[in-house]
Amino acid sequence: MGIALVMAAAISIPLGTIAALTRSSLIRLALLTLTAIFISVPSFFAVVLLQQIGLQFNIALGRRLVSMGGFEWSLKKMILPVMILMARPVAYTTRIVHSSLTEIMEADYIRTANAKGLTKLVILIKHAYRNMIVPYLTALGVSFRFTLSTMILVEYLFAWPGVGRNLFSAIEEGHTTLVEVPSHTIANHRQPYRVFPVFCFHLRCIFSY
């Protein structure tokens, strides 16, 4: 999950910047359309789709490029789960970067910086990105909730040991207390100071089970 969020943070800034600053409406439209698709596609459908695509690649090439399940710190086993976990955070934060930069670049102080002869790079780093940081960090916080809720499904469908497998086992066996873990955590996403302690408490309950 941490890898997915770090990669999402690294990818979304350049993509959002390109969408905000490009003069080509076609590129902007393509990027925003892709982000809308990534936000809208259900995670379980994306998992099944990527597994099928990966399987067809493995069959066509005659060797195993990606793994369909199991946990291991290797590229083959991590690439598909990380792609699923980072899809929605990348899309959401890219749209935030785009909307924030579009508004910021039309501000009076940006026009003043242009009039002084500052380069685009200096204006972006010293002025635009500095004022974009608050909405961007807020978007990353919301993306943590996206990733946390998707992680349970990813663990289950990719046969990873963790919260997901224990959660579905609890559902099958009727342990309603353990089923409350994701609902409590996700319900408190608007109060970030409550998410981490609630999540840690329920993790302890799950693994003690």
What this model shows, in words?
This protein has 209 residues and is an all-alpha fold. It has a domain of 132 residues. Helix content is 82%, strand content 0%. The chain has 9 helices and no strands. Helix 4 packs antiparallel against helix 6 and helix 7 packs across helix 8. The longest helix has 38 residues. It is elongated and about 65 Å long. The two termini are 23 Å apart.
Task: Offer a few descriptive terms.
209 residues, mainly alpha, 9 helices, elongated
Layout of strands and helices, then pairs:
Layout lengths: L1 H20 L3 H16 L2 H19 L13 H30 L3 H8 L4 H38 L5 H11 L2 H12 L4 H17 L1
Helix pairs in contact: 1-2, 1-4, 2-4, 3-4, 4-6, 5-6, 6-7, 7-8, 8-9
Brief rundown of the structure:
The chain has 209 residues and is an all-alpha fold. Helices cover 82% and strands 0% of the residues. The longest helix is centred in the middle third of the chain and has 38 residues, at 120-157.
Radius of gyration: 20 Å
Oligomer: single chain
Strand portion: under 5%
> How many beta-strand elements?
0
Distance between the termini: 23 Å
